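Bug report (template v2)

What were you trying to do?
Predict the complex of my protein with iron/sulfur cluster.

What happened?
Run completed; filing so the output is reviewed.

Input:
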Amino acid sequence: MPTSTFDIFRYQPDTGPEHFRQTYELEHDADLTLLDAVLRLQNEQDGTLAVRYSCRSAICGSCACRADGKTVLACMSQVEDLKAQNGGQPIKVDPIGNFEPLKDLIVDMDPFWEKFKSVKPYLVPDGPAPEKERIVSKEAMQKIYNESKCILCAACYSECNSLAADADYVGPAALAWGYRFAADERDGQRTARAKLYSGEHGVWDCTRCMYCNERCPKGVDPRDAIEKLGGIAFNEGVSWADAGARHAKAFLISMRTGGKLNETLLVPFTNPIKSQLDLPFALRMLSKGKAPSPIPHRIKKLDEVKKLMKNVKETI
Ligand code: SF4
Ligand code: SF4
């Protein structure tokens, strides 16, 4: 029988304000999950060890935590696999990141639920209600299949760089749910949703680090959903309000007109007011050959790039 060591984050606000770490050893069968390991430690060694869980089957999403720094569902993670990955070291277990711990591995999820509610995660159909039901084709549902798999475990929030920098960022899961409804053909609020999700702390604040896609245990790919929401914002004509949206549009225009990125045009497009203040500095850089010419450079195979760009669905 293998024996494993667990180095667990502890926080017991009833007995003291300090976080500390505690090491436990456990002899166990080879097929033990991380969640079952923590529950056995709680039952057999330390009844004060707090963890949130429910289904044990990767459905409820409540046992998300960090194992050796990576966010996982504890019920989906095998102890022996974690040891194989870390070279047999003690397994470090921490609460998910970007949330305040309440007790040991349990965090305050209230901000997560507030953000989830803020995207209006429900259908708002237009027009009178049908006599029976609103029928949707399989093909239409396929478009939102990925986002419909979200179990609201918040693993993506734990890894999100934008959230680490801005606690008000709406975040990957909530935006994935936003896309799930904005792209549902039964919904009648597409323009309103595009405005709601494109504002401050929304779609355009994502840094595209891709960690949410990497760590999502259900393959939701929330970053992809955020990208598709950006496309909806373009199509619904609400893309000029935010600097992030203008930045993305400058890339698009640059590619369409020159076949490559024109960095000199990015700044005035993205932030027209600030760029005027920076004009003397920009001119000095140009005169010293330190900035590319603002006159669009056209690559030789521009026609080929334009053919590729025809596949880009956004309208400008
Ligand atoms: S998108 Fe994935 S990681 Fe994020 S809450 Fe949903 S299931 Fe969890
Ligand atoms: S890709 Fe965007 S939403 Fe996903 S983790 Fe990175 S910053 Fe957050």
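What did the reviewer find?
Residues 3-107 form a domain with the Ubiquitin-like (UB roll) fold (CATH 3.10.20.30). The mean pLDDT is 91.
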